[in-house]
Design goal:
38% of the residues lie in helices and 16% in strands. The relative contact order is 0.12. The chain is α/β, with parallel strands linked by helices. It binds pyridoxal-5'-phosphate and zinc ion.
């Protein structure tokens, strides 16, 4: 497969053996290391600095992912009419100081992306890239959101999608896939087994591969969330960005975005990154804490989107936390459910468990002193809670049921605290 690239791509580097490849090579991962040889796309920052749009020019552009076309690794066709990805709100937390002891806390709301999660930033790149290569079928395995996002993005521009999901995928995400017209296979097994099956099918049939990490262009899409945060904060410094971590691509993308703009002089320092994992599935946290090689973890958590026993982008994620001088933290399922309730009732944000996990991690980091009160923090809300009503119900319980009779109502009426 010929790989078309954006104008400022210099080449790529394997995160495992560190071999640098030139722009001319045509593979998705390092041929020496196989599919664990994840590539990091390299840019010609000198050339990019000379040609990149000014801050003022940026302000004229529509607020969506394509405003960053100079910084992307794929060629962007102006004629391509995709769903509106990115350009999401950055809210200043209303209750932050009183309730949880932060002077300045922002919430980046990725739940408003067209298919309801941050995964759209990667999937829209995948379908645009597939289209530019003349591919007709895109495929992936996913814990849910990557799949539903790929399916929606593919439908929009007339590509077919084939999707493999593990048994545990929540019903909302499965229904979403079917509504988008995807060919869906629910695999008897965990995410790891699902991934292996999809990998073989993709290789055999030559479909465009949107598997997390393996395709290096996806992180380049996800990094745009960092650019947006920088722009929305008026290029001011921030101290921490908090994100929940499964495969590690979102975290790696964040780092890459901050790194790019730091290298290009649009940011004076890279914020510290806090990677949040669920206690029931925390291979990256464990590797960091024990300073030992990554071990396969069980996938025992309510947060399905970060239930990843074998993270595909472990190296990039661990590097991102280390190079940003950040930290890792774990949270319990109960803390995740509590955070769901808190985010909903104090901020008006309905988050799925993997997304609430980031908020739970943020609170724990504040309590344990990892993050201090005066530091400026952004937490990523990565996925919309509407897709997983069962988990939401676990967080908040049942509604009160009454007869259609005002007298009976009046007897029970009391304003909630
Ligand atoms: C995928 C996902 C994450 C984690 O992203 P990774 O790249 O797998 O680390 C977090 N939250 C939500 C809602 C997700 O869908
Ligand atoms: Zn390699």
């Amino acid at each position: 497969m010929k790989i078309k690239l954006g104008p400022y791509v210099r080449g790529s580097q394997c995160v495992q053996c560190e071999t640098v490849y030139s722009r001319e090579v045509s593979f998705m991962h390092c041929p020496q290391c196989g599919d664990t040889g994840i590539l990091d796309i390299l840019y010609d920052y000198d050339l990019l600095r000379q040609n990149m749009p000014t801050v003022e020019t940026m302000q004229q552009r529509p607020f969506n992912i394509w405003r960053y076309k100079e910084w992307l690794s794929i060629p962007v066709l102006d004629s391509l009419s995709t769903l509106h990805v990115g350009g999401t709100p950055l809210y200043r937390s209303s209750a932050s100081l009183k309730k949880w002891g932060f002077e300045t806390l922002y919430i980046k709301d990725e739940g408003v992306n067209p298919t309801g999660s941050l995964k759209d930033r990667a999937s829209v790149i995948a379908v645009a890239h597939a289209k530019s290569l003349g591919q007709e079928v895109v495929a992936c395995s996913s814990t849910g959101n990557a799949a539903s996002s790929l399916a929606g993005q593919a439908a929009r521009i007339g590509l077919k999608s084939v999707i493999f999901v593990p048994e545990r995928a929540p019903i909302g995400k499965l229904n979403q896939l079917l509504v988008y017209g995807s060919q869906v296979y629910k695999v008897r097994g965990n995410y790891q087994a699902t991934y292996a099956l999809s990998h073989e099918a993709i290789k055999t049939y030559g479909w465009y591969d949107r598997n997390a990490a393996v395709n290096p262009h996806l992180v380049e899409g996800k990094k745009t969330v960092a650019y947006e945060i920088i722009e929305q904060l008026g290029h001011r410094d921030l101290d921490w960005v908090v994100v929940s971590v499964g495969d590690g691509c979102t975290l790696a993308g964040l780092y890459k975005g901050f790194y790019d703009w730091y290298k290009l002089g649009r940011l004076s320092r890279i914020p510290k990154l806090l990677g949040v994992q669920s206690e029931g599935c925390a291979p990256l946290y464990q590797a960091w804490k024990t300073k030992k090689p990554l071990e396969v973890a069980e996938e025992n958590t309510i947060a399905d989107s970060i239930a990843v026993g074998v993270p595909r982008n472990a190296r990039k994620a661990l590097n991102a936390v280390e190079q940003s001088h950040g930290a890792w933290i774990t949270v319990t399922d109960q803390a995740i459910l509590d955070a769901t309730k808190t985010l909903g009732s104090h901020e008006g944000i309905f988050a799925e468990p993997a997304s609430s996990a980031a908020f739970a991690g943020l609170l724990k980091a504040r309590e344990t002193g990892i993050i201090s009160r005066a530091e400026t923090v952004v937490v990523l809300h990565t996925g919309n809670g509407l897709k997983d009503p069962e988990s939401a119900r676990k967080a908040v319980g049942d509604v009160t049921q009454i007869e259609a009779d005002f007298k009976a109502f009046k007897k029970t009426w009391k304003m909630k605290e």
